[in-house]
Amino acid sequence: MSETIKKFLYLNRKAPYGTIYAWESLEVVLIGAAFDQEVNLLFMDDGVYQLTKGQDPSGIGMKNFSPTYRTLGDYEVKNIFVDRDSLAARGLTQDDLLQIAWEDLDTDESVENIVTVVDAPRVSALMDAADVVFSF
Amino acid sequence: MKFALQINEGPYQHQASDTAYCFAKALLEQGHAIFRVFFYHDGVNNATRFTTPPQDDRHIVNRWAALAEQYELDLVVCVAAAQRRGVVDEGEATRHKKDATNIHPRFRISGLGQLVEAAIQADRLVVFGD
Question: What span, in angstroms and rounded, lies between the C-alpha atoms of B9 and B49?
């Protein structure tokens, strides 16, 4: 759709339920896939809860949309980063997070899990390197 | 420089739309261009023409509309977010069989692709909200 390739960083900082930011952010990622940009996602603060396994919000009458994250590999998303300090502050580790696979159907290249836990300097570098930061 | 603005919060509840407006006005007065202003999340509520604040308060919706009129701004409301929150134009009213519309004529409803396009086309995307 566009010849310009920019580095997009979707910065997700809010819990998956309680407000609609997480879900509507995911909708932008899904729609944005049509634009063939370089897409990275970064989860920090309460945003790390968006990727946790075993979500069940049925008790509050909400739809569990976390399975959608597992399809992101099919939506041009190559890298998903999670801030280590945010996980640690909430007693979480990578074992608590979803695994998201990525596969290039043209080249058969595949990655088992594109979710990477990163330290603060890498978080800064990601923000610095991005052309566009969508902050949700 | 060419800017795109994204507004994620509703009017009056939150400062985001006010700050974005002041920022937009300052940009335009300094000769910068605004490719698009995109209203998302509760930000879609900035587009309803039924907004009626007390007379001694600022009119956030009309203020955006006037700025758009003066500088030919493209004010776009996300369709999915608008549907959830009952912001309706003629097309949406017909499609979903609603008995009225409430969008201000200076705004238009369109898809999230317009936000992504704006981010690509603009030199800077500035997001207003929490």
Answer: 17
